[in-house]
Amino acid sequence: MPSDDFSSDAATWSPIDTGAWYEARESTALLRDVLVAAGLAEELPYLRADVNAFGHGFVELGRTSPAAAKRLAALLALGLSDGRPLRSIDNEND
What we know:
Layout: H1 19-37, E1 48-51, E2 57-60, H2 66-80
Antiparallel strand pairs: 1-2
């Protein structure tokens, strides 16, 4: 016989009732601001915050063009190198 207790019913759960949603949204906003500053705002049109069925927040980057991916990779490499050119891992003679 079904229980009349609906407190654990998944239909009553809301993603905005969790800290994970707000963390994903804040992270997405931070990333959006950097992408705007880098001139890549139009290149990542699917950027969004979300929460999955388990209540885990995540940031979805979505699809982008190969040129935008190369630009993003170059910016990440520059940030990791403190402004110094990174040695390519594809060419061991660098």
